[in-house]
Design a protein that fits this description.
Blueprint lengths: L1 H13 L23 E5 L2 E4 L4 E4 L14 H11 L11 H12 L5 E5 L2 H16 L3 E5 L7 H4 L16 E3 L5 H10 L4 E6 L11 H11 L3 E5 L11 H6 L5 E4 L10 E5 L1 H4 L15 H16 L2 H23 L3 E6 L2 E6 L8 H13 L2 E2 L13 H23 L3 H4 L12
Parallel strand pairs: 3-13, 5-6, 5-7, 7-8, 8-9
Antiparallel strand pairs: 1-2, 2-3, 4-10, 9-10, 11-12
Bound molecules: pyridoxal-5'-phosphate.
Pyridoxal-5'-phosphate binds next to helix 4.
Amino acid sequence: MKNSTKYLQEAKKIIPALSQTFSKAPYSYVEGIYPAYLSHGKGSHVFDVDNNEYIDYVLGLGPITLGYNYSPVNKAVKKQLSKGISFSIPHSIEVEASKKISSIIPDAEMVRFAKTGSDAGTAAVRAARAITKRNNIAYWGGGGVWHDWFTVITSRNEGIPKSLGKMIKKFEYNNIESLKILFEKWKGEIAAVYMEPMITEFPKKNFLIDVKKITKKYGAILIFDEVITGFRFAKGGAQELLKINADISVFGKGIANGMPLAAITGKRKYMEKFNDIFYSTTYGGETLSLAASIAVIDEIKTKPVIKHCWELGKKLISEFNELSNQIGVKIKMEGIPVRSKIVCRDDDDNPSILIKSLFYQEMVKRGVLLGPGYVFISYSHSQKDIKKTLEAAEKSFKIVKKAVNTKTVKKSLKGKPMKSVMKF
Ligand SMILES: Cc1ncc(COP(=O)(O)O)c(C=O)c1O
């Protein structure tokens, strides 16, 4: 880790928080054991600045659906690069990319672009507030929108006017009553229901249909946050998988295999509000990301990308959990094949960050990069990757088991325990 350590020392002098993304910073991993800096990637593997190689299940926190340094996307970006990146009036690729997205996402009658999922989520909320002339938002999800309207309800809300917090009303997934109560209590004041269509729990029979009905009944807008589920759960995102449409949807991450792109899509009658509200940014039509997105969608449409991710993820989860059962450790991969999480529990069945850190330490030593959030699979992950991962897991489970049994988990941990960056 010589080069990683050197960069980290320099970063400490010049980069507050050490990273542009909390969840990528050294403290989110096992600091001292994990590489602090990566150099390049190929397919499902990444290489750190000391040239150690890892099978990567973090995938840039989700965007890399196809794989690193993925040839058809690279080609599309290079071709566009030779023509130019940003222009003074729109480039025709904006129309092409909008049509491409509209061809794959249900009810994407119109499309606007953004650079991050947070930008897209915020734009959708602004449009909903403008359409309904109301301020409050009924919210459910796994967090993720790092702009004021949402961040105000997290533990990292310094610098945000507290009054914004009063406008966010949380409800529970698969609990339609919790949403009804909000609409009754704040009658005529809720602009939108903003939610992920699902995280890893499937909706109960009519839950999403009822959400839609209630949202309509009270004159609000239904916004689906498909930043993680889009381009991953199905070709057309969770809406296609669950056979339900929102009024406005937001996408990010997997839309361009790592290029900075997000999108707001929806029915014409709602999207036309973007004619009026001030949603406008210099790089909104930046062409390299749009070229990447067109290439991504072509890949998803013509190759079994989604099927591959579901199948490989299913194999990984079932064999990982079978091994942990056999060995007798409380380490489980929970969730669904395309979005799972590793949960490590202590003897009292409480989630343990120390046990998790030890497990992650042993996995990264064996060339498997797991992250603080979800385990993701890309189209480039192979059966060989899964086999190697399971071999690493078997060895790591045994080490963790011994440490738990001899009460030496803390002593066995050579790096710092992982830290969560905030609470919701
Ligand atoms: C569900 C969800 N929505 C929105 C976002 C925000 O996306 P970005 O980090 O690109 O701003 C995230 C990011 O983690 C997310 O998980």
